[in-house]
Amino acid sequence: MLRKKYEFDKEFSILIQLIGEMDDLIFKIDKILSDEQLFQLFESDLSKRYPKTNETGRNSTPVEVILRMLALKHLRDLSYEKTISNVNESLVLRQFCRIYFNPLPNKSTLIRWSNQIRQETLLQFNQRLTQIATQLQITQGSKIRTDGTVVATNIHFPSDNSLLVDGVKVISRLLSQAKEILLRDSKNINLSIFRNRHRTARRISREIDSLSKTRNQSGRQKREKAYSKLVEIAKASWKQAQKVKLFIGNSNLLEYQKLLQRFEIFLPRILQVIEQTQKRIFNSEKVPANEKIVSIFESHTDIICRGKINVDVEFGHKVWLDEVDGGIISNYRILKGNPHDTQQLVPSLDKHVENFGSSPKIVTTDRGVYSQSNENYAQLLGIKEVILPKGGYRSKERIKHERKRNFKKARRWHNGVEGRISFLKRCFGLQRCLYRGELGFSRWVGWGIIAHNLTIISRGTLKNKINIAAKI
Asked: What does the pLDDT look like over 95-125, one tens digit per residue?
């Protein structure tokens, strides 16, 4: 049964007074997370874990504890294990997470509850934080600067041979699990279908890597021959898996069905790797980026080329950020593929109007976002200063317009968005996503933005107090 909160512990409150209070930032974040609307958003998602989660079953970890422990994890960019360890060792953090003297949830419990949180819930959570920031006068929503960045998925650099080895490794692992189950129920199965080919595949892959530096005809022929062997091994493993899948598919037992699901997830991906390798290596065909698979584990990963000086290709997803005055990220979007930046201004402005009820006074972007239609749309919304620098050829009138004092001043303010992106990547994990799957990616980004906004709001309230005290 889903519990909302632990009962307030008077003995714990006496003890915490003797030890000391929370530091100012944590205290402010503690107050923000006490907001009833934020609590209800989480309660709504967690109550849908099972059909009767709110009615029957043993008592769960309370919603308030889960919310605060997940917030703490991303505020300090910790692992699940480290989060639990830190809370367990600190009375102040026990107070912050509202655990008191109660036992902490273990890592598996926390992960399962975390996986219940939907992307839409985190977006609504962030919108509520933006409302709180507006009420506390941290932001007025009068200015907006918008830009994109790439958050990498947690994969190794994809090469054809390494992806084939990954496929053989996964199949070998699944075959080993299937062997243990099938031989327990039947002794008349040919053991050759469980053959592990991973070590052979890995040896040939190393041979391909060593031959990749050769530029002569002989070296290229040897490399192609090695690729041919590796593809044959991958195909043989795939055929073994298909045979084992038929054995498993005839049973309705739960452990068979779970294993069957893994076969159904990975076998199509491995077949796609084999096919794209054959096209690229043997047929010298170019495979379009949207048809490539760069990881059999994180198959949702996009291939993104942004023309950066030090980075040719990035693997992950493009994330578009809208930052308003006060440093609050009022909205974010995880984009599919690698769409052009010119497509992002209109949705950003529409969402800003939805969040704040009015258009901003200033909107500023970089050169990649400029288009005449974007500029016209911003002006139609009644935005006084539309700062969209134009790339390429500029007329004399355009140059004169972009040299105006207010234009240059807004451009300088826009440069701060790069610092904001750097802050997100350094402190809140947006350099690389460590959660699994597409849904895990959306949760990782959402929590990173939320942790950032909680930090900015808490700093802003402290700063406002200092300013008021200085005036007095």
From this structure: 999 999 999 999 999 999 999 999 999 999 9
